[in-house]
């Protein structure tokens, strides 16, 4: 979370007397508008003047009408638009010193000394050159009589902050660049559509996705759709790959699959550095195997369309952080780029990131492909390792004689099937026998247990809901039957995929170990619920899909008011007592308020919100959006809030209400949920395999330590396993939520973006982190 230095500075006065300009440069990316909107609104909140620069660096050079002041209303209704509203252009002029002189003169004349650049590594490098030359450019301008000494003195130093907008996710140092998630949404929509037609005709499909120098989109697509093969520039296939590929495709067909999918990044190469193209692959598959093969090049579809919820929240968070970084910068601080590591906002030295990004290209050109994958960062490396694990089609000859059971517990959500699929397949690769338990703990008690095979789960990645069947029933009353069936089916380990019931049910199982020895087996819980309320994880599988459903519905609802004047919508979201969905949807849909259980509110707050909306209606923005979590307050119901707003807003605005209901649990999983579930399923089984080795004594499995029953979760910057016993202390069981929730720190951002004059939290400061010192120089690692 963006923060302010704690020296008692009033955040609403930080920017007084300062001017910030924001521009988008290079290739456009969905979510850039969210970043522009946040930069403008937070800049204005701090008291700074904010300027738009239209058409990227070209606008900076041309000046005039290209640079003009931004207002609060001028960024309204921008969130849901793809591309960049302020325009972007490739600019030759700015690459010359003459062009940069003009740009400097234009900025000095307007008193702008803070520049926020949203673009790729080329755009950000250009910004840094501009900054290093700044004092020399001012001297030249004075000597040419273009500016006065006084003007130069007032603008003696230029601060620069970058945000990376690039659908390729090719910038080192950041886990996700703005636009990547939305591009994946476009790709997966196409893959899903193609798969259905391919199955009808038993076809092989080859899809080319963007990524000239970076295989991120191709790699995540391959994971998210369970592709047979992926070609990426960072890791060319071994010699003889043609035979291997054909063998893989025929093996897939032998297992009963009617479709083959091959994903190719546009920059994919072989070991000689020659391009591997769609046509080449199509010829190969058609000639060697005689399959009916089609090739599709996605092209600019990937850049288009509305930004995903993730990109809107990312753009908004980065925009806030960028303004704070600019206003806190001194002449000594290096130009920085604001970025995301796990779910934390971080600031990184711009040129270190650019250097790392260049190092990848060098490593690839020198054939050091393992180094290239490492330099891409932890997230890329994890994706690559998971892909390699799941790419096998041939299970090992030797069996482990271990039986691992998998079950879904709680309400269904998108992504559960993807987690089951990767857990089943990885278990089979490890030599285990995999068992499916239908209908949760009740099914475990009622013997709804059967073997589950490699082929059964073949096409499960993109399926919504739960194919195993899921129930909310807890195991407490069935302990006797459950322990008998664990013994009867000789179950050695348990994977429980689900929401809060999975967590509390597993706790009951652990307590039952005292009485029933059969329950002394390793267990792992994979959080999967739209509510995102499982202790031990910042994210749950299914929450991203639900969030996108809510966001797109809010977009439509807001749009329905475009023709009418002054309308406020009150929308109820799911989540139990957890306000995650309401808060994040508030950020991604641009809500005026989001009522949640975790942040207590009373009649005064409701009154203030109504007054706020009444004021808003006097401007050019004639729409309001209020979100309410279903259990935020038992007395202030959705109907109550609707009636209150309707009465108080009489003559100013009218109200409509929507309860979104179960549509939030349905739909096909988003790319994030597919990828997250795939990695979680694989990691869970790898952990169980290790635990089983530890717990094997005297010819049997016996696990009764707290460490043998864990929640696998995403915490800050990576996947971690935490014992249920530890997490018990961190849980509010009455309201089924963790006692501490990271996303509450994002709520002030939502309020500031809705024009509330509140104070920002100053406890967590995003300090500058170094990216290069973390890794030994590449040439050193080679010599060792």
UniProtKB/TrEMBL annotation:
E.C. no: 2.7.1.11
Binding annotation for beta-D-fructose 2,6-bisphosphate: 472, 529-533, 567, 574-576, 630, 656, 662-665, 736
Keyword vocabulary terms for this entry: Acetylation, Allosteric enzyme, ATP-binding, Cytoplasm, Glycolysis, Glycoprotein, Hydroxylation, Kinase, Magnesium, Metal-binding, Nucleotide-binding, Phosphoprotein, Transferase
Any one biological process term the GO annotation gives: fructose 1,6-bisphosphate metabolic process
Reported regulation of activity: Allosterically activated by ADP, AMP, or fructose 2,6-bisphosphate, and allosterically inhibited by ATP or citrate.
Residues at which ATP binds: 27, 90-91, 120-123
Top EC class for this record: transferase
Active site per database record: 168 (proton acceptor)
Region forming the signal peptide: none
Positions of Mg(2+) binding: 121
Function: Catalyzes the phosphorylation of D-fructose 6-phosphate to fructose 1,6-bisphosphate by ATP, the first committing step of glycolysis.
Subunit organization: Homo- and heterotetramers.
Protein name: ATP-dependent 6-phosphofructokinase
